[in-house]
Amino acid sequence: MREIHVSDIISSVKKLSIEANYYLGQDVIDRMISLKEKEESETGVEVMNILLKNYELAAKEKMPICQDTGIAVIFVELGQDVHLVGGDFTEAINEGVRQGYKEGYLRKSMVNDPIIERKNTTDNTPAIIYTEIVQGDKIKITIAPKGGGSENMSEVKMMKAADGIEGVMDFVVDRIRRSGGNPCPPIVVGVGLGGNFEQSALLAKKSLLREIGSPNPEPKWDQYEEELLKRINDLGIGPQGLGGRTTALAVHILTKPCHIASMPVAVNVQCHAARHKSIIL
Question: Which residue, 64, 200, 249, 263, is most buried by CB atoms nearer than 10 A?
């Protein structure tokens, strides 16, 4: 059994909150550059150049990539041989978010009530936390700040098995078509298949953590990711919705088994600022 003090969680989450909002992953930048070379729209190329300059300036000046610094979505892989000491696990994560969003001058976007009061909590808490118990004596913490514009374009649909893969693909493409320029393309499209209603949505969100350009862990899904990417980019929405062939940087599919009577499908849309950072304690 290995002891980890919750103060280490606080400091780690604080650091990740700031870094995820200042520094975009090189995989996203490389993909943007690669697709820019193939973009046929002059306006699309100009927009992508502006986005790339924005990433550079954000890192150089230590400023947020986007004014919407998002909900703090936290994925935790907690080793079963870890003993947490010194305080409450959930509160430690929220305190890390609280400190990071304050010291990093990050916009606080959480409201305390979804409908009636909608009063800002003033510190971007509570975080949304997903915890998975794994083997070992370490903790992996990943923060994925999620902006409202892209999140609002996401959707879950309970489909029938008879709809098949073509039905799934038609739904995904139509979801992006209906989204238009709202999610700030070029986007990353996360697709969750299987599980049940809520797990399909979580699968879609987790799929966004995969490195852009990396193969699907299940090779049989690679061809469908490529076909979906082509169909989405053929929509002509383009960078920031101003036209062009670069509507999406990638499509990521993540699957789980499901009930014989169900075929849940979820689409979680991520804007071009596909932010996430991890640390292992």
Answer: 200
124-134 residue pLDDT tens:
999 999 999 99
The pTM assigned to this predicted structure is 0.96
Q: Can you read off the two tokens belonging to residue 90?
A: 């959930």
CB atoms within 10 A of CB 258: 16
Domain count, the chain: 2
Residues in the chain: 281
Scanning the chain, the segments in alpha helix (DSSP H) are 6-22, 26-36, 42-61, 89-103, 148-151, 164-179, 197-207, 222-233
Residue 74 and residue 201 in one domain: no
DSSP string of 115-175, one letter each residue = SS---B-SS-PSPEEEEEEESSS-EEEEEEEE-HHHHTT-EEEEE-GGGHHHHHHHHHHHH
Residues 16 and 77 in one domain: yes
pLDDT at 170: 98
